[in-house]
Design brief:
The chain is mainly α. The chain has 22 helices and four strands. It has two domains: 253 residues, no CATH class; 201 residues, no CATH class. The strands form two sheets. A two-stranded antiparallel sheet has the order 1-2. The protein has a two-stranded antiparallel ribbon with strand order 3-4. Strand 1 and strand 2 form a beta hairpin.
């Protein structure tokens, strides 16, 4: 029987959404402080307006249900699903006032891309964007990368009104520590430590290439946030190529790789369980997949004669594959080069890597390498069953934070996610091709949006069709929820409007 939302459910959901909207007002204080410190008075007024809108909106929503309430699993799905939309709405207010976007829709696109750590941008004249506006873009990526719900839970914004259902509704089915509050705080603390370390290293590297201290500090901060949270945005129009530094590229990709590791595996490392880490199915599958994909991509670039010297070929090839795998989306190969210099075979390899993505329970997007490993195990098990005698009974296991049985329910769930993602890729590609774009760039762009990668083959521009902007924003939102949450939420909403049947004087 399908569960329906009652009027009380809606009031409770609105109340908790109001808490998150109010939280976004607090997050806007970060760019406001930067604006005041850098004497960007115009930007400061924009964030004062944004904070006011978020506070008024959040406060009114919290009045929807003034009593204490504990979220059910169904309500948690709704809060998580709609939170990303509402945060994108409030987050776009100061961006729309900045003058760097052609319309509010473009600012909303930027906000959605930032919160979901996709990294695609419709900003105009990024090179002259204020420190405050850039800081806000990266603040949204920082919160979105770790998870809005994770941050809210770690700060205790929901009090004791929630359980693990709200945490799991954001696509995180594993607990680093049995206690949900300790788990969220571990994720935040780990991210803070890595972020500070990245800030220090990037600041030193930016100073080394000749940046003035203040600008070096902010670029170090933004690069650290975008790398570990696999956001992929940069503060300059040339992207990562602006720095012309091999050292910066190496640190960027190392942080992105670290961010794409399951937080549960991070917990195992912090506990000193080093050997089990390398035995994990995610790690093993990632090593095999990246080795094959990188070798094939470099070979495809070499065959196409894309680069004259071998060191540049290897450097660009490895960086591109790892950026696609981690969902960071940084590009050392420009959109123009992707469509004119890089062969279609090399593009297909990038597409496959973007589809898979990084680890489950990390900051990266895509189908996730864990699901690929589990489905691969199921294929091997199926072949063994075909070759085994009828009397034989096999027990298939895999190693992921301990030895686990390969249950039918797990395989079915992973297969469902796989099918949903592939369906989304196909529908988005059809929509893009319908507007006259070539097939290969359309496939590339569609996979990038659905998997929250942010790489672009040149289609994502301020003047692209309005319908495509909506399609891509929906993809970013649904991809961040990993589609299953969205489907479950959509079914609950639709069934709530379905009239109840009357049978023998009773209402069902």
């Amino acid at each position: 029987m399908w569960q329906k939302f009652t009027f009380r459910d809606l009031r409770v959901i609105v109340k908790f959404l109001g808490v998150l909207v109010t939280f976004s007002a607090g997050a806007m204080c970060v760019p406001l402080v930067v604006a005041l410190a850098m004497r960007e008075w115009s930007s400061a007024t924009h964030y004062i307006v944004g904070i006011g809108v978020a506070l008024c909106m959040g406060s009114l929503m919290r009045l929807a249900y003034v009593k204490k309430a504990k979220l059910t699993t169904q309500q948690a799905l709704a809060v998580t699903g709609f939170a990303w939309l509402l945060l994108a709405v409030t987050g776009s207010v100061p961006l729309a006032l900045s003058g760097h976007f052609g319309s509010y829709l473009d600012a909303f696109f930027e906000s959605m891309s930032s919160w979901t750590t996709t990294g695609a941008s419709l900003a105009q004249d990024v090179d002259h964007m204020s420190f405050a506006d850039n800081t806000w873009r990266f603040t949204m990526q920082c919160i979105g990368g770790q998870g809005v719900v994770v941050i809210a839970l770690s700060l205790g914004l929901f009090g004791r009104a929630v359980d693990s259902s709200l945490y799991e509704s954001e696509g995180r089915s594993e607990h680093v520590i049995p206690n949900i509050m300790q788990t969220t705080r571990f994720i935040v603390k780990l991210s803070a430590v890595v972020g500070v370390a990245g800030l220090i290293v990037f600041t030193i590297l930016c100073l080394a290439i000749g940046m003035e201290p203040v600008r070096a500090f902010f670029n170090g901060l933004w690069l650290s946030v975008a790398s570990f949270n696999t956001g992929g945005m940069t503060s300059m129009s040339p992207g990562i190529n602006y720095y012309h530094s091999l050292a910066i590229e190496l640190v960027v990709i190392l942080l992105a790789m670290y961010g794409s590791i399951n937080f549960t595996l991070h917990g195992e490392i912090w506990k000193g369980h080093i050997v089990p880490f390398f035995q994990d199915i995610e790690v093993k599958t990632s090593v095999v997949w990246l080795t094959v994909a990188t070798a094939a991509f470099v070979a495809a670039l070499c065959a196409a004669g894309a680069y004259a010297d071998y060191p540049t070929l290897v450097r660009r090839g490895i960086f591109t594959i790892l950026a696609a795998f981690t969902s960071s989306g940084f590009q050392t190969i420009s959109p123009n080069q992707l469509t004119t210099v890089v062969s279609s075979g090399a593009l297909i390899i990038i597409v496959f890597v973007m589809i898979i993505g990084g680890s489950a329970g990390s900051t990266s997007g895509g189908i996730k390498i864990l699901r690929v490993g589990v489905l691969g195990k199921e294929v091997v098990a199926y072949i063994k069953d075909l070759l085994a005698p009828p009397s034989a009974r096999q027990v298939v296991t895999y190693y992921h934070v301990g030895r686990r049985p390969l249950a039918y329910s797990l395989v079915r769930a992973n297969l469902a996610v796989f099918v949903l993602y592939v369906g989304a890729f196909l529908i988005t590609t059809i929509a893009t091709v319908a507007y006259g774009y070539d097939a290969m760039p359309s496939i590339f762009e569609s996979v990038s949006m659905v998997s929250n990668i942010g790489m672009t083959a040149g289609i994502i521009e301020p003047d692209m069709p309005v319908v495509l902007k909506f399609v891509y924003m929906f993809d970013m939102w649904a991809g961040r929820l990993e589609w299953v949450t969205l489907i479950a939420l959509a079914v609950s909403v639709i069934m709530s409007f379905k009239p109840r049947k009357k049978v023998k004087g009773r209402v069902y």
